[in-house]
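Minimal example, chain plus flavin-adenine dinucleotide.
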Amino acid sequence: MTTTLSSSSASGASPADETSVHTLVVGTGPAGILAALGAAAAGPVLMVDRFTLPRDKSCGGMIHPLSQQIFAEMGATMPDDLLLDPQTVYFRYNDWDKHTTYDTKLGFLNVDRKPFDEWMTSLVDGKADIWDACEYRDHEQTPDGRLRVRLNARGQERFVTCDWLIGADGSRSRVRRALGLAPFDCYVTVQDYCLRSGPVDAVFDCFWTKEVPDLAIGYVIPKNERALVGLIYYPGTKRAHEQQDHALEVLRQRLNIGESIKREAWSALKHRNVRDIVSGRGQVLLVGEAGGFLSPTSGEGISWALDSGRSAGRAIAAGGVAEEVQARHRRGTAHLRRMIAWRLRIYPVMNSRWGKTLFGITPKFLIESITNHI
Ligand SMILES: Cc1cc2nc3c(=O)[nH]c(=O)nc-3n(C[C@H](O)[C@H](O)[C@H](O)COP(=O)(O)OP(=O)(O)OC[C@H]3O[C@@H](n4cnc5c(N)ncnc54)[C@H](O)[C@@H]3O)c2cc1C
């Protein structure tokens, strides 16, 4: 339930300008939602988000089979009306410089992120309160061993005291920084919603070409009558909008991409190494991109956010002191850490000139199998 700030007492035990809860979750993305759902079994949960809800996060809206599996395990069914035309798109990789194309059987459900997030937020109805337009600033330990969190709620300073603080605040996580951890390097991402000048293949079409400088990877996804064109540029890319205009020109020579009717720029984390993955410290747990949980090779992040958020929620629900809860969350995310470590080892190979050449001569069945693990 998204509550107004005047009904501030999630537990009812505190003065009017202070609120006390068992768990405070910063961020209402998929990681925060799953963490809140789990932690609700242990006591009152409050979620805060710096955006007004429903938020509008830039995203390809590709729902990986692992995300679908987590929803099935939760007993949550994505409403059919979230699905766009085509409902399922299969991953296809193109190296335009080497004139190679790989079709795969890796299918993603095709949604727009905003209504998908709105549906996900509805899952916490009755389980957690949500304050939107409310930004986490910092926190301190109280003499009785709790955490006092300072928030900026619609321009007003507010304090929330909690036993557990969950940082689910994405790639530029402030909660992470409050633990003394360095911020991530970030890719610059730009997405254009384009009209079509003709048919666009019904695939999740990923491409790479030297013709677009600083490009890590790009993609075109049909979304009803439009085509979403996204490009991920390496950290430090300057004048990304000019790069994007150039990229659209390059694309128009190959695909039926028409005029852009909406553009959005965002950021996505880039791991420096496996030490970037941190599941938390003391009474603070990190989940989703804030903890470094995202595929470094494909940039797919929703299933990693769901998985790590679920782990934190379960760790809190099982109770115990900070060391026990942290150890449980570390164990609950150990498989994600291993998967990221493996991907970080293959990423430089994938990106090198000889790696791309090797890819070009690799049998298709092997590409199929590798695709399922990136
Ligand atoms: C361009 C782009 C395309 C992508 N496409 C896909 C895709 O197709 N499929 C896929 O699986 N993944 C995709 N990803 C990755 C995916 O979007 C993220 O990995 C995923 O959303 C991470 O979830 P999260 O819950 O960790 O964080 P987020 O979804 O980023 O949520 C973090 C929330 O925290 C809030 N917040 C931040 N700071 C504060 C603060 N100080 N106080 C309060 N609230 C705060 C933000 O407002 C936000 O709502 C894409 C990413 C980008 C950038």
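The CA atoms of residues 85 and 212 lie 29 Å apart. The longest helix spans residues 334-351.
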